[in-house]
Amino acid sequence: MTNTIGDIEDADVILVTGSNTTENHPVLSTYVKRAVKFKNTRLIVIDPRRIKLTEFADYWLRPNLGTDVAWINGLMHVIIAENLHNQKFIETRTSDFEALKAMVEKFTPDYVESITGIPVQQIIDAARLYASAKAGAILYCMGITQHTTGTDNVKSLANLAMLCGNLGIPGGGVNPLRGQNNVQGACDMGGLPNVYTGYQKVTDEAARKKMEKAWAVTNLPDQVGLTVTEMVPMAHDGDIKAMYIIGENPLVSDPDLNHAEKSFSNLDFLVLQDIFMTETAQLADVVLPSACFAEKDGTFSNTERRVQRVRKALQPPGSAKDDWEITAEIAKRMGYDMVYDNSEEIFEEIAKVTPSYAGITYDRIERCGIHWPCPDTKHPGTPILHTAQFTHGKGVFHAIDYIPPAEQTDDQYPLYLTTGRVLYHYHTGTMTRRTEGLNERAPENFVEISAADADKYDFKDGDKAKIASRRGEIIAKLKISTKAVNGSVFIPFHFAEAAANKLTNAALDPVSKIPEYKVCAVKLSKLMAS
Amino acid sequence: MDDQKRININGNSFSFTTGETILTVAQRNHIDIPTLCYLKGTTPTGACRMCVVEVKKARNLLPACSTPAESNMEVQTESQQVIESRRMSLQLLLASGNHNCAVRGSDGQSWTAFQLNVQQQDNSEDLCPVWGDCKLQNLAYRYQVSGETFPATENKYPMETVNPFIVRDFSRCILCGRCVQACNEVQVNNAISLGYRGADAKIIAAGDRPLKDSDCVFCGECIQACPVGALVEKDARYDWRPWSNRKVRTTCSYCGVGCQLDFHIQDNRIVKISGAEETPPNYGSLCVKGRFGFHFIHSEDRLKTPLIKKNGNFQEATWDEALDLTAKRLLEIKEKNGPDSIGVLTSARITNEDNYAAMKFTRAVLKTNNIDHCARL
Ligand code: SF4
Ligand code: SF4
Ligand code: SF4
Ligand code: FES
After folding, report:
1. How far is the CA of B286 from the centre of ligand 2 (A)?
2. Are A502 and A472 in contact (CB under 8 A)?
3. Which domain holds residue B41?
4. Using CA atoms, how far apart are residues B176 and A434, in angstroms rounded to an integer?
5. pLDDT at residue number A498
6. Which residues touch B229 (CB under 8 Å, ≥6 apart)?
7. Range 339-358 of B in CB contact (< 8 A) with A
8. What does DSSP assign to residue B163?
9. Closest residue by Cα to residue B120 from B100, B137, B136, B104
10. Given pLDDT bands bounded at 50, 70 and 90, which one contains residue A260?
């Protein structure tokens, strides 16, 4: 997030898109709801599903799946046409405005309605409201990123915020909500193919030299590595021979699971390090038991870049060990000494090699976390990014055209499928599905469908149905819900036994390599009594 | 400094800003005015009258939580009149339900009958499940009152135990309304409200239905707000006890909000989780996963020992065997097919330190940049 969670209550207008906030980030959603109810903040929700937050919204725009760039460009068209943009911010802080202006020219409300299905007047009203805000915050989540055009969607939201001068101010910002607890930290720590900690590029010679020195090694690789979504097909083709997987269960979370399963089985050697025997661990050659968060010391970095302490409260079961300890043991046996007494020593090394973490110590975050960047031990941390200037000087507008989703519905697969989470479960369910109460509230997989579609295909609430895409099929109960839109169904992806990702499309965004989880074409059919 | 507004409390003068209540001024200056219904950050309801204070020239005692501070106001927070009033309020509350903690007093005749009756309703021989962690009990002790001054009122509504997380014990509810404020003004879930009037009053979910059939999302904010034993975690009821309980502050491991929470640990087990108050980003709030979803930690299915697959079946191994094999195979494959034939997936669940170790290992030891995690997924 460019801004903080607490900051949300200072916004005049909040625009939420692609985030079912009350279910996926429940405590953060309380800030949004309080702002609306008690502080006169206006709320715009842009989401195909009738999510809970729509009850709090002044405007609810319901775009067709995968048409985000179109409505964002449409809002910008209206804002520029009506001269509601922030000229001063654009002149002093940004570049390439003319290119953006030329691009959004054709995105008239009529044209946007024809793509997105959002009525013209709603586009105009929402644009005016967002532009009228002294401070306008944008919140988004996987509904924006999990598309073949995810990178475009994110850049478009940044365009919109810059257009109205909503960056670098309290109550403003473009705020991605991180789905998993330490996504931010995993990225900050360089758990990515192209960067070391703090986003220092592996292709940058100076960064490489610095790391070589810090780690006392030579010849660090200088080519960008592979993303997970590239590794899987390469494993399938035999170009990736071995994998070391820590705390992930790609066999439920990956798109197009049938393909993924073959890929992992094809490896010469698979090591899995986790707290449970997951679906993926079943395929491993070696399984290493690790301690869970309640059994280790360390830090997580939350979605607002706040580095917070994790504390050891219990002994791990059996002989399970800290993840870092296991990794260090393997390193040692491969001839490289990675010796640490405890997690704090590792953190000190992180601070040493990472400018944005340089000023953070366990002592300083004993009682309350600190937002990076925090360049030195006197620095208070940085709750709001880009207050004076952007990281790379000027904020660049990106002129982006609309591209339809990779897979469209047709006669054979007439319905769109979108996937997501429910309040009571988390990710692939390995953790939450072990709490009975959570299972009682959300016991099994379901397909959410609108009453009209259920009628059309002659289904009743609670009927079992087969849902098939071009890649696979699953069986689940139908749930008629007012959350659903006509023409689309929604399936949560927590349930391994009827994994939604057997259906989803592995088509990738060309830049971020994020698969298109949020749109694919499916068909429903009755289960024949045998 | 002359134009600064000042109020006098217990003979000392304090500055205040417009809009502050007597209570907030007092709290800021470490003057302890007892409260039951007041919930920070929400609209005061004035329901319990525990916070009453004596204000010079005012006809009645005034509730400090909802009375704005005014210039030159003279306030007494523990005068005889105030103490009498608080004692009376407490006696009425104690008589109003199954408050079977020791402070009820054992001087009267009805003690045994009362206790036996409560035990039967609780289905337990223990005293109240929040014994030792109850604001009403604390105040009764502080003001030395028992529950026998007034006749016990009849207990109208049976306990609700039909949802998996929260036990609602109406017999111990003092109708302070904090849970309603927590639900509607902090979490804004609007699931519960004060229903019925007078002696029939009850905290109800829409249409007086069980929570599981209401808008309740089981965030548990109401449990944490309840000053007495009327709302209790189902799992922790009679298990968690304040005197045998060790607390450890940590960060929630589910979503990216990173709520701060406290584990309550007994016998090396987590028995309950509460939100860490007074600290960002959540200031005490949690959601159903963060508060109740901890059972996986103690699951019997946890991996406890390294495993090596032999002929298609996993067999238990020592750490040395498993680590040696891993190192040997990775080295062989690196030698034979090159570093880029190996891929590492680190995780968005594990700590920064764990991630750093995995990153360093991939680059410095395997000598590949093929490292990623499933954040995109
Ligand atoms: S658990 Fe949460 S939603 Fe349910 S009644 Fe309590 S505060 Fe309201
Ligand atoms: S349930 Fe607890 S918080 Fe709610 S009114 Fe009763 S005593 Fe107060
Ligand atoms: S308690 Fe809920 S909202 Fe808070 S971090 Fe955990 S999962 Fe997220
Ligand atoms: S605390 Fe003031 S009336 Fe209850």
Report:
1. 19
2. yes
3. 2-78
4. 35
5. 77
6. B128, B129, B130, B131, B134, B169, B172
7. 339-358
8. S
9. B100
10. confident
Whether A455 has its CB under 8 Å from any CB of chain B: the answer is no
Residues whose CB falls within 8 Å of the CB of residue A524, separated by 6 or more in sequence, listed in order: A415, A447, A449, A457, A459, A465, A466, A467, A478, A489
Structure tokens at A394: 């000027």
Q: Do A423 and B286 touch (CB under 8 A)?
A: no
Provide the token pair at B44. Answer: 């005061």
pLDDT of residue B128: 81
**What's residue B180's pLDDT?**
97
Whole-angstrom Cα distance, residue A400 to residue A100? Answer: 8
Q: Are B183 and B190 in contact (CB under 8 A)?
A: yes
DSSP 8-state assignment for residue B226: -
Given this structure, which CATH class describes domain A183-371? alpha beta
Out of A216-230, A416-430, B109-123, the most confident range is A216-230
Q: What is the DSSP letter of B250?
A: E
The CATH number of whichever domain residue B35 belongs to comes to: 3.10.20.740
- Report how far ligand 1's centroid is from the alpha carbon of A309 (Å): 28
Q: Could you report the per-residue pLDDT of A480-524, keeping only the tens digit for each?
A: 999 888 899 999 888 877 788 888 887 777 777 777 778 888 999
Residue A146 in this model has a pLDDT that exceeds 90: no
Q: How far is the CA of B36 from the centre of ligand 2 (A)?
A: 10
Task: Find the helix packing angle between A150-163 and A68-81, rounded to 10°.
Answer: 20
**Cis, peptide link before residue A355, omega less than 30° from 0:** no
Q: Which residues of B touch A268 (CB under 8 A)?
A: 329, 333
Task: Indicate the fold that domain A6-177 takes in CATH.
Answer: Dimethylsulfoxide Reductase; domain 2 (3.40.228)
pLDDT over 90, % of chain A: 72
Residue ranges in chain B modelled with pLDDT below 70: 1-3, 102-111, 375-377
**Confidence at residue A530, expressed as pLDDT on a 0 to 100 scale:** 41
Largest CA distance in chain B: 92
Ligand 2: residues with CB < 6 A are B 173-179, 203, 225-226, 228, 230-231
- Report which residue type is found at A210: K
If asked whether residues B61 and B14 sit together in one domain, one would say yes
For B41, the token pair is: 């950050």
pLDDT value at residue B118: 81
d(CA A179, CA A425): 12
pLDDT in the model for residue A243: 97
Q: Is the pTM of this model over 0.90?
A: yes
User: A446-449 and A269-274: which strand pairing?
Assistant: unpaired
d(C-alpha A521, C-alpha A506), whole Å: 13
Cite the DSSP H helix spans in chain B.
22-28, 80-95, 111-122, 135-142, 178-181, 221-225, 288-292, 319-337, 352-360
**Rounded-to-integer distance, Cα B5 and Cα B19, Å:** 11
Among all bound ligands, the one having the nearest atom to the CA of B214 is: 1
Which residue, A342, A329, A265, is CA-closest to A299?
A: A342
pLDDT at B1 (0 to 100): 44
Q: Where in chain A is the domain with CATH 3.40.228.10?
A: 6-177
Tokens of A232: 């899987």
Q: How many domains does chain B have?
A: 3
pLDDT digits (tens, 9 = 90+) for A309-344: 999 999 999 999 999 999 999 999 999 999 999 999
pLDDT value at position A508? 79
| Secondary structure (3-state) at A462 | coil
Instruction: Write the secondary structure of A36-89 as one string of H (helix), E (strand) and C (coil).
Output: HHHCCCEEEEECCCCCHHHHHCCEEECCCCCCHHHHHHHHHHHHHHCCCCCHHH
Q: Mean pLDDT, to the nearest integer, of A435-441?
A: 88
- Look at residue B61 and tell me if it is in a domain: yes
Using left for φ > 0, alpha for ψ between -120 and 50, and beta otherwise, residue B311 falls in left
Name the one residue in this structure whose structure tokens are 């407490």: B90
